[in-house]
Amino acid sequence: MEKSIPQPIFSVSDFIAVVNQTFDYAYPTIEVEGEVASFKINQEKFVFFDIKDKTGSISCFMTVWQLRVPIEDGMKVIVTASPKLTQWGKFSLTVKLVRPSGEGALKKSFEILKAKLSSEGLFAPERKRQLPSIPGHIAVISSTQAAGYADFIKILDDRWGGVEVSVAQVQVQGVGAPDQIIKAIEYFNQVEHLPEVLVIIRGGGSADDLSAFNDEPLVRAIASSRVPTLVGVGHETDESLADLVADVRASTPSNAAQILVPDKNEIIRSVNFKVSSLLPRVDQMITQQAQAINLILVTVMDKIETAIEERKSVIGNLKNVLIQLDPNKVLARGYALLRGKPVVGSVIEIETSKVIMEAEVKYVSSK
Amino acid sequence: MSVVNKTIQEKTNELAELVAWFDGDKFELEAALDKFKEAEKLAAEIEKDLNSLKNEIMIVKKKFSSGE
Lengths: 367, 68
Hints:
heterodimer, A: alpha/beta, CATH 2.40.50.140, Rossmann fold, 4 domains, five-stranded mixed barrel, five-stranded parallel β-sheet, 11 helices, 13 strands, 23% strand, B: mainly alpha, 2 helices, 66% helix, 6% strand, rod-shaped
């Protein structure tokens, strides 16, 4: 015959405590997926909702501060919680974290939070600060194991040098990622040697992978960073709230490096081009000056030739005058040349064009 | 901006001034060759400086996971 073991008799409170102890031992933290129902916030502090599927429903409780993404009735979520039996005998989940599950829920949550933060002016263009043209010290927040980080460093090294790069190694996806990134932002905002730019990067991934960058406290931490921020998350087509709130948005981690520093190879090409274009310029100046000198020579030659022609013309005229003054010409016209004194009785010489004769002066009178 | 970059910036500015001299009113053919040699030297220095600069990457020791 079986010996019966006496069952312990608990007080109600003790039994509740034992049940909770059992829960703590068996299920310290569980994740439950379901649809949100009866969502409400009491006194702006406490959040109550049910999580349900086709046949079951469980009450959930959390504080407003733990609610990092907006949720609403009908949204599919995953809660990270601890099961608990209340002192009134009601079973509920004490939720530590709730996150949207599935593309539809993620998108919905994204749009709600985007609208909320936008209405607060967090994405306003007038909030955006300029990045320094060539930073000397930057801080990078990323996972050093990720391809996106490797891409960023490769492009940065290819393009420029002499930059001090402080890197905070953080998770860039999963439940812990937003808090780690927030801590890293706070760290770089408090260090004595303040970086000139805060770069937050992560390569591509699924919507769920990238959802860490739609976390409300993270978005607010980026917005409140006193160090200007550059965020490059995912691929070109991905849009996160961290992108929208950043001072400058990069489409990818590689693009973040391109935005951050100039391309030294382009500068070298440009510098060499400038210098190589100087010699043709000197050649051009020599040609111009030679042309100017030639022009002056031509002008001078023209002037000399004109002066010679003028002189020739004057001489020609004088020659004509001289020809006309030739005494032979006068004699040829029938005139005669007299030599000797016009005194009565004296002999004078008379020259015509054809003969020379002598004659005696017989009469002289004044005109 | 780092000290070395400042020097590159100064050299770049100096080169820009030299290039502007060739286009400006003060251009003199007699001085052009010397100025050209100066520009060529500066360009070579800028290229050398840019290629010799290396980024210094330092992983922060602090851990950012929960509770640390």
